[in-house]
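Table 4 source record.
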Amino acid sequence: MATNGKQQSTARSTAPAKGAARGSSTPVKRRRPSPAVYRRRRQVVFGGLVLVIVLVVVGVLAVTGMFAGTPEPQAVDTPQPSQVPTQGSPPSSTPSASASPTPVCDFNLMTVAAKTDKPAYGADEKPLLTMTITNGNAAPCEVNVGTSQMEYVVMSGSDRIFSSKDCQTGGVDLVKTIQPGKSETANFPWQRNRSLEGCGVINAKPGAGGAYYTFEARLGNKASPKAVFQLN
């Protein structure tokens, strides 16, 4: 009985523990991650890489904007330094925009004169009636010297002999610029005939035998002093 008790005691003390046998003699195998886990890990890494790239691009753009300042201005049509006029000297390539038009002549300062080419005419000679318009203004001015404004009138005392407007079919305007103190001249060859207003028919002719006549030149409402001539 005593011997049996010893053997059992020895057997218990020498037998290895169950846990120890597993830990010392058999290695523990770890489970490998599944493919889904690998995909998730790659997605996380890829997302982080994209985020880093975005941050880098934003930073570069911000730095570029700081140095760029404002955008490049549009081109404007500005004169070159050689074309910029100095004070008091208008540019030679373009006319002055402030140039004023030529004013109309003040008729109170205009002079209308009448004369004939000869003081006396023979029976076969025709007088040449001349009208002269002179600018008495202090500056150049414009005046209408067309036939619409001109009239040549021949009188014998109070008898109206002839007017250039009686048979005029249509007057025309002719505006001219006359310099101060300068003149415009117009001639009218008179046929030694009578006329009536409206170009009525008249057979009578001016008298001869040394009769005196007067010629008056009119421009608008401005009349000249009368020029005297003789018809023989």
